[in-house]
Specification:
This is Transporter substrate-binding domain-containing protein. It comes from Massilia cellulosiltytica. Keywords: Signal. Helices cover 36% and strands 29% of the residues. The protein is of the alpha/beta class. It has an 8-stranded mixed beta sheet, with helices on both faces. The chain has a two-stranded antiparallel sheet with strand order 2-3. The longest helix has 18 residues.
Length: 246
């Protein structure tokens, strides 16, 4: 009798296992070197390598799509199998996603032309200026919610050009460790920091339909990466990225 019951339970368990395989995740990100970028046919970068390692350790199949930020973010909101990185975790976004991380840190910086002088000691001092933002991202939402005069761009790297053309006064940029994008684009010494107005952490943000068990597994994998030095090794792998790419 006991053998019969055990066999029945095993049969049910096997049926559940076949019926509910771990989903293949659709991961989206934006071009934001050296954190996410395309090299040949492959998406790479610090954030991408962190996410890839999380997926491998967690035993989760995945694909990565490089998109404009608004499309990348919207996909994670709407698709039940989707996650987006590197996403700033804000109170407004908290309930919209399940969170894995943090996978990185950044500073929000008001950038201006080096040949202009700004009397900006606090964020409120910048209310008199036109601030260039990236349409739909956390900095844009943060400044809009506080009543700033923002001028959004569909691509964040349009903003240095807008600065040089006097179409905006300041640019609300997100600056992360090792980023030499402005140098590579020829703006070194021309666009400079005016004020650091926030320090944030970024995450892999998953649709609310992604199972809790997978989210816990991914966070566990990331914690193990922090303990064994893998996360630090990924960051240092890109120490020479800006020099090599000039």
């Amino acid at each position: 009798m006991k053998t019969t019951v055990l066999a029945a339970l095993l049969a049910v368990a096997c049926t559940w296992a076949r019926a509910e395989p771990a989903p293949r995740l659709y991961l989206t990100t934006e071009t934001s070197a050296p954190y996410s970028m395309r090299e040949g046919d492959r998406v790479t970068g610090i954030g991408t390598d962190m996410v890839r390692e999380i997926m491998v350790r967690s035993g989760i199949a995945y694909s990565i799509d490089l998109l404009p930020w608004k499309r990348a973010y919207t996909a994670a909101l709407e698709r039940k199998d989707a996650c987006v990185y590197s996403t700033t975790r804000t109170p407004e976004r908290e309930s919209h996603f399940k969170w894995i991380g943090p996978i990185g840190e950044a500073e929000w910086v008001l950038m201006g032309r080096a040949d202009r002088r700004f009397d900006v000691r606090t964020l409120d001092d910048a209310r008199a200026y036109r601030v260039g933002t990236y349409n739909g991202d956390a900095r844009d939402q943060f400044l809009r919610a506080r009543g700033f005069n923002v001028d959004p761009a569909p691509n964040d790297l349009i903003n240095p050009r807008k600065l040089m053309m006097d179409r905006i006064d300041l640019w609300a940029a997100s600056i992360r460790r090792g980023s030499l994008t402005l140098d590579r684009l020829g703006y070194a010494g021309k666009v400079v920091p005016v004020l650091v107005f926030n320090r944030i952490r970024v995450y892999l943000a998953c649709n609310r339909a992604v199972p809790d068990a997978l989210v816990a597994r991914m966070n566990g994998s990331l914690e193990a990466m922090e303990r064994d030095g893998t996360s630090s090794a990924i960051v240092h792998k890109y120490d020479g990225w800006g020099v090599k790419s000039r």
